[in-house]
Amino acid sequence: MLALPDAAILLGRTAADWRGAVLLAGEALQAAGFVQQSYGARMVGMVEEFGAYIVIAPGLALAHARPGPDVLASGMSVVTLAEPVVFGHPYNDPVSIVLGLAVITADEHVAGIAELANVFNDPAALGRLGAARSAADVRAVFEVPGVS
Amino acid sequence: MKIVAICGAGVGTSGILKVNAERALARLDIEAEVTATDLASVAVAAADAQVILTSPEFVDRLGKTNADVIVVQNYFDLDELTAKLEAALG
């Protein structure tokens, strides 16, 4: 799967709004050494440009931006929110879990994305993430056998 | 048959849509090529596509297309994807 070190996991955080939540995911990616600071703002920019399409399932946002010079390594971050925030999605608001995704090229992360699908195709995964109290709890949710 | 999954960057969400669309198609025993791309490339990528998969935000931005546009609410709900693909292709 995509790299998910402890530094990239933020649990029970508070965000004032969707921008704050996405920026937390960016801070976590930066803390793990995956991106430079500008990447968080670029993830916010994707939502400003295209809308809340990153809210791909009820309660879950997959924040990401295109590859760029501010991406230092491919990886992901996980932010759980103490209070859910509204992104403005027609079906899937409010959001309590934000995944941050950074990739070097558009193609090389395909296997990692497929594994994300494996994880969240299980409807229980979101609840387990929301209940996670440690980085180990979070990582356990993502460690599922591949089915593809 | 060609199916195109569209998102803003062509990086994250369309990749998930592609993976799960392939699983739904396998359930339906339908052979199709599924590609993931971004909105900027849709005119070319979807020129000969039969189906476009995307989220509600992008429907109005797709422009003219002859493809069936399937709007996906929950990208991880294989039952939803399977039912919508079956309705479009069956």
Automatic annotation (TrEMBL), chain A:
One of its GO terms (biological process) is phosphoenolpyruvate-dependent sugar phosphotransferase system. InterPro entries: Ascorbate-PTS_EIIA_comp (IPR051351), PTrfase/Anion_transptr (IPR016152), PTS_EIIA_type-2_dom (IPR002178). This is Ascorbate-specific PTS system EIIA component. One of its GO terms (molecular function) is kinase activity. Signal peptide: none annotated. It comes from the Bacteria. It is found in: Cytoplasm. Residues 2-145 form the PTS EIIA type-2 domain. GO terms for cellular component: cytoplasm. The keyword Transport applies. Its main location: cytoplasm. It comes from Subtercola boreus. The keyword Kinase applies. Keywords: Cytoplasm, Kinase, Phosphoprotein, Phosphotransferase system, Transferase, Transport. The phosphoenolpyruvate-dependent sugar phosphotransferase system (sugar PTS), a major carbohydrate active transport system, catalyzes the phosphorylation of incoming sugar substrates concomitantly with their translocation across the cell membrane. The enzyme II UlaABC PTS system is involved in ascorbate transport.
From TrEMBL, chain B:
The keyword Glycosyltransferase does not apply. This is PTS ascorbate transporter subunit IIB. It comes from Subtercola boreus. Residues 1-90 form the PTS EIIB type-2 domain. Signal peptide: none annotated. GO terms for biological process: phosphoenolpyruvate-dependent sugar phosphotransferase system. Pfam families: PTS_IIB. InterPro entries: PTS_EIIB-like_sf (IPR036095), PTS_EIIB_2 (IPR013011), PTS_EIIB_2/3 (IPR003501). It comes from the Bacteria. GO terms for molecular function: protein-N(PI)-phosphohistidine-sugar phosphotransferase activity. Keywords: Transferase. SUPFAM superfamilies: PTS system IIB component-like.
